Amino acid sequence: MSRLYVFSASKMEAGPVIGLAGSNSGDRPPGDPTPLRVGANELTVKISGMGTQAARGIAAQALGPWIDGGGAGATEGDKPDAVLVIGLCGGLTASLRESRIVAYTKCLSTEPTQGPLDCSPSITGRLLQLLVSRGITCEPGTGITSPRIGVSTTAKLALAKSGATVVDMESYEVLAVAAQARVPAAVLRVVADTLESKLPDFNRALDAQGSLDGRKALRVAIGSPVRTLRLLGANKRAMRELAKALAIVLSADCFSG
């Protein structure tokens, strides 16, 4: 059995994981810390909210007990065997189409002082091998975490100059904390918006912490109804594909050792 911490930015992105746990997750009170079980794996789901600061905060809270021995009562036996970051991402190359699953080999940051972080080669290799063997198209890629949303092709091409193939807003921060806690980590995301996609400018709805302000986001969405509907449809299709991939990997022994 592997003890796995699964990080996502939203309840929607965490939905497939909770759904896989079936009756074990039913009727759970809010904030119930009891791990879920999928196959032989024990899962603890951590929902951060969108953005770099939110992701860093929840990762530090979850993994802090194993950073420099800094947690009262924390033991190595309670330590997760691995961390998995899941969710949506944006494609930065023309070859990455909507709903393509990407397993990060490493992750970059838009902050110039933060160097690249490698994902666990062994876990990532097992994820890729298992998914391909089960008929799921999944490819390795380099991610980049940005505090802003890539809403235009021009913005995405600028990010692609880093060598990244996909962009998200949380992965780097979770990986950085996992590295501090010496927990191997992997990232499995699905492309929701492609290089050519034009999104509503939700950057105008980000607050000072880099999270989405719901009221401002609603105004942006109302002001761009066609783009918003396209985005919602793409997100729904992408999440269906990610759910299929998660059903395979979370039921298997991909995270031990």
Kindly describe this structure:
The model is unreliable at 23-27 (pLDDT under 50). The chain has 257 residues and is of the alpha/beta class. It has helices at 11-20, 52-63, 121-133, 153-160, 171-180, 214-223, 225-249; strands at 3-8, 36-38, 41-47, 82-91, 101-109, 117-118, 138-145, 166-168, 185-193. A hairpin with a 2-residue loop joins strand 2 and strand 3. Helix 1 runs parallel beside helix 7 and helix 2 (52-63) packs parallel to helix 5. It has a five-stranded mixed beta barrel, surrounded by four helices. Helix content is 34%, strand content 22%. It starts with a strand and ends in an 8-residue tail after the last helix. The radius of gyration is 17 Å and the shape is globular. The longest helix is centred in the last third of the chain and has 25 residues, at 225-249. The protein has a single domain, classed as Nucleoside phosphorylase domain (Rossmann fold).
In short:
The protein has 257 residues and is of the alpha/beta class. It contains 7 helices and 9 strands.
Keywords:
about 20% strand, alpha/beta, single chain, about 260 residues, about 35% helix, Rossmann fold, 7 helices, five-stranded mixed barrel
